[in-house]
Amino acid sequence: MADTLSIASWNINSVRARIDIVERFLTEEAPDILCLQETKVVNEIFPTDMFKRLGYVHQVLNGQRMHHGVAIMSKVPIHEDDRFDWQANGEARHVGIRLDNGVRIENVYVPAGGDVADREVNPKFGQKLDFIGRMIEWSGALDNKPTILTGDFNIAPLECDVWSHKQLLDVVSHTPVECELLGRLQASNDWVDIGRHFHPAPARLYTWWSYRAKDWAASDRGRRLDHMWMTKDVADKAIAHRVVEPTRSWEKPSDHIPIITEFAF
After folding, report:
1. Of 49, 11, 27, which Cα lies nearest the Cα of 226?
2. Torsion on CA atoms 229, 235, 241, 243, rounded to nearest 10
3. How do residues 83-124 score in pLDDT, each as one tens digit?
């Protein structure tokens, strides 16, 4: 394994529909490992060839037709293939692997949770809370395994993680109950939020902008929904973290942008 290693995470919102910008991103940024969420394709027709052509010959896919789906594409060897059903209904929302150095990478796509922040009225919101509850159980039992937990968490936890804390308090992804639960997840294994480690609050660090905005950059109503957390032993090896905001302006963009962490193992 190289002395340095870069790991990217990106909710691509359909890997086949956005294959051109994925190729551009991999060509320009060339991370060693790319964790994708919301691939929206079954494994049998995942566009593997482009990744192989660019050197991502190690691939772990957990796909689903038209919905959800996660994948890990890597230039370096990866081992094992875990798929946790934190949704408890078989949806393809997690895939996990191990690197040669023993570090685990867990790639997760947390449910969005619907539009109403009330589990009695909106079952999807309850599913989201229960999903994170199962993650807390898993996290609390990790027993000091060096681990990276990354993906689309669909929660912007801090006041500065959204364009307007006051206006989004009742909006799913920034409600107090979600933020409190994500705080419990972070505390369950003393996870280091590497984004805020390198860009301390209240620095602007958005990763998502709605398609509804006519000019996303001008209105800049962003949220930080995508995260990379890691156990302290792994965080100690991190040397940089950044978001790749220009991708939001590329042709046929995802509403999310990639995040990248570089390590010196």
Report:
1. 11
2. -10
3. 999 999 999 999 999 999 999 999 999 999 999 999 999 999
Residue at token pair 């962003």:
222
Residues with Cβ < 8 Å from 145, sequence gap 6 or more?
104, 231
Tokens describing residue 55: 């050197």
What are the structure tokens assigned to 200, written together?
């301390």
The yes-or-no verdict on residue 219 having pLDDT over 50 is: yes
Residue with token string 């958005």: 206
Looking only at the bridges linking them, the beta strands covering 104-109 and 147-152 are parallel
Tell me which of 1.10.260.40, 3.40.640.10, 3.30.565.10, 3.60.10.10 is the CATH number of domain 4-264.
3.60.10.10
State how far the Cα of 81 lies from the Cα of 98, in Å rounded to an integer. 8
